[in-house]
Protein: Polyprenyl synthetase
Organism: marine metagenome
Amino acid sequence: VTDQEVQRTPTATLAYSLVGDRLHLVEREIERACNSEIALVRRHSEYVVQAGGKRLRPAMVLLCTKICGYMGDDDVKLGAVIEFIHTATLVHDDIVDGAEVRRGQEAANQVWGNQLAVLLGDYIYMRSLAMSVELGSLRLVEILTEATSRLLEGEILDVSSTGNVQLTDKDYLETIDRKTASLFAAAGQASAILADATPEHEQALASYGSNIGMAFQIIDDLLDYSADPAHFGKKVGADLREGKMTLPAIYLLRDGEKAAQEHFLGCFGDPELSDDDLNAVVMA
């Protein structure tokens, strides 16, 4: 890649191009990990895990191990583990939120109901744990399980704060630090450990991953108010309809005009909110 090509290419596109061949191997590893002896479990797992998505977390693993000079093959398995953990949380998220669409297709809870979807999410979690053990490093397993625990703590904070319009930006940032950034941080740190990098590099990649995760969640929450549903992969306005306070809403209630605040509060938590009312909130 020349300097001129780098200048013309969006950062994300360039980053994916650096690890595209390895990402194909991650997809094959994901297919292998979905291969249950029980056909029903295999089909359901494939429906959820192979539904696409950005594969941002596996790409980060591949990039971080590449930076550290890793030359082995376990970066592919680690990327698949991280993606499985992430996917399991999405399945459970959709049950809690009553989501209808995920990654451009019907959410698992809509296809099979909540009972089966809960079990499917649990199964994907357990597959991720089994795959992490295959990496042969107790420290990696500890990092990944600790990240999963922090992620679930964030989910609990998120659910428990539903409907709370008094939520502060500090509360919000603490929640997303656990709910989203923890897995990105683990992806960076685990990559350094896999590559036998120095403690300084390990900490640097953990910090980098955490910052990427924080930025990712803030942008995702902003897009929930402004994105094109055809490209977003899920229904826009879900946070407003579900009564979830994210940063755009927090700043509106803190700094917005009174009329806009009153309109927002009248729409907040209304599951039947129309697209016109959503647009009015956005325009305010």
